[in-house]
Design goal:
- Helices cover 84% and strands 0% of the residues.
- It folds into two domains: 208 residues, no CATH class; 190 residues, no CATH class.
- The longest helix is centred in the middle third of the chain and has 37 residues.
- By secondary structure, the protein is mainly α.
- α2 runs parallel beside α6, α2 runs parallel beside α10 and α3 runs antiparallel to α6.
- The protein has 16 helices and no strands.
Length: 420
């Protein structure tokens, strides 16, 4: 919908989004540790551990939202330091100074979602999220474009709509959890203000590598956007469209990865290495099927997908449309690598091998991917195509390494089980 405001608004919104999104993912990664820790506690029959883990997840969410918000308040200055145009940075500032108020409820929603995922209670997450999509679309339509009697706020309106959705997501899951009688045994909100520093530290130790691994990947994608910004506004807009399509396709293997992480964590807590391997194999197989379907969609319907992001005037023969359509075919291959690596990384997180997964991410995305993107794009002067293929190189490296290491860790676990 930002694209309907024009290429400049899309580029500015993309810069702001790519500044806030890595920070959200860092918080998401840390709080995501609630899921494997809860799953392991359930596998071991430790209901008190479930409550303590969830409670500290809420604490961590609040403590992360405060410094992140301060950082985003100075978003324009950060974008200028990163070499972006002053006009785009100014437009992005209005968006960022609104969106930051949704960080705390979004992190609390993530803690609730992680708890429910660990218990395999995912249907309410789906329902509430689908409703939130509708709320977001309606809010954007009203506040960005000035419909239904609201003022036309453009990117600021998009930010307000986002905050409303963040609050809606948190309250929706909170009401659901509090109404479930079978959750009473956990006493999730009992003695909420009591500190549990050992559990807090354990959550940070397990979650921080998850967060750093996620942010390594997220900043890699953001870096690609910023590198495209050195080339042209059209390159930023086209790359944003294709990466958004990849992000939507990524949600299927991401969800499969979360389910795989929980099952792996549960069986690891119960001391069942054979079941751990079976869960990992099932996750990879289901993800592969989903990726085949999305790859076909990218190849056969690339022009249609690109058109969804552009105004009618920009669709026919526009520079942004032509470039984005040209990138869609290679994106079909890139999303294969991205989808398979997240499932393998989820296996490592379920086994609490989060440090290994973090270093794999930094090596793949920055040691290989960013180096390739910068070298191909600017040193060898292939321009936007070089930057784009550097992105694919990083994703391919991550997939190969993550799969190999995950299977190695599971083999060691199986060997240790036999020795015991």
């Amino acid at each position: 919908m930002m694209g309907w405001l024009g290429a400049e608004a899309l580029a500015a919104g993309s810069l702001g989004y790519n500044l806030i999104f890595p920070l959200y993912l860092l918080g998401l990664g840390v709080i995501l540790a609630v899921a494997p820790m809860t799953a392991k506690a359930l596998g071991a029959g430790d209901e008190t551990g479930v409550r303590r883990t969830f409670r500290q997840g809420l604490w961590v969410g609040l403590l992360l939202a405060i410094p992140f918000g301060v950082l985003l308040w100075e978003g324009r200055a950060i974008l200028l330091v990163l070499g972006q145009e002053d006009r785009l940075a100014l437009l992005a500032e209005g968006y960022l100074r609104v969106v930051l108020w949704g960080l705390a409820p979004l992190f609390w929603y993530t803690a609730l979602r992680s708890f429910l995922t660990a218990l395999s209670r995912v249907r309410p997450i789906l329902i509430i999220t689908l409703v939130a999509v509708a709320v977001n679309a309606l809010g954007n339509y009203a506040l960005m474009f000035g419909h239904f009697g609201f003022p036309r706020l453009e990117l600021v309106g998009a930010g307000i709509s986002t905050v409303i959705v963040d609050i809606f997501l948190f309250l929706g899951l909170l009401v659901y959890v509090m109404r479930q009688k079978d959750f009473a045994r956990f006493g999730l909100f009992e003695r909420f203000w009591r500190a549990d520093w050992p559990r807090f530290v354990a959550l940070i130790r397990l979650g921080m590598p998850i967060g750093m691994g996620i942010i390594a990947e997220a900043f890699f994608f953001s870096a690609v956007i910023f590198l495209m910004g050195w080339i042209s506004t059209e390159a930023v807009a086209a790359t944003t469209i294709v990466l958004q399509c990849m992000a939507v396709a990524f949600m299927a293997p991401l969800g499969i990865g979360h389910a795989t992480m929980v099952r792996v964590g549960y069986h690891a807590g119960a001391g069942q290495p054979a079941a751990v391997k079976q869960s990992a194999q099932a996750g990879m197989s289901v993800a592969f099927v989903c990726l085949v379907l999305t790859a076909g969609l990218f190849i056969m319907a690339g022009e249609f997908l690109v058109g969804l992001f552009l105004s009618p005037a920009d669709r026919a023969g526009g520079v942004v449309a032509g470039l984005a359509v040209a990138l869609m075919a290679s994106a079909a291959l890139f999303q294969f690598c991205d989808g398979l690596q997240i499932v393998a990384v989820s296996v490592l997180r379920g086994l609490h091998a989060t440090g290994i997964a973090m270093w794999l991410a930094f090596a793949s995305f920055w040691g290989v991917g960013f180096t390739a993107a910068y070298s191909l794009g600017f040193v060898l002067d292939f321009g936007k195509q070089g930057v784009w293929w550097g992105l694919g190189t990083g994703l391919a490296c991550s997939a190969v390494l993550a799969i190999a290491v995950a299977w190695r860790v599971m083999a060691r676990m199986a060997g240790a089980g036999r020795d015991a």
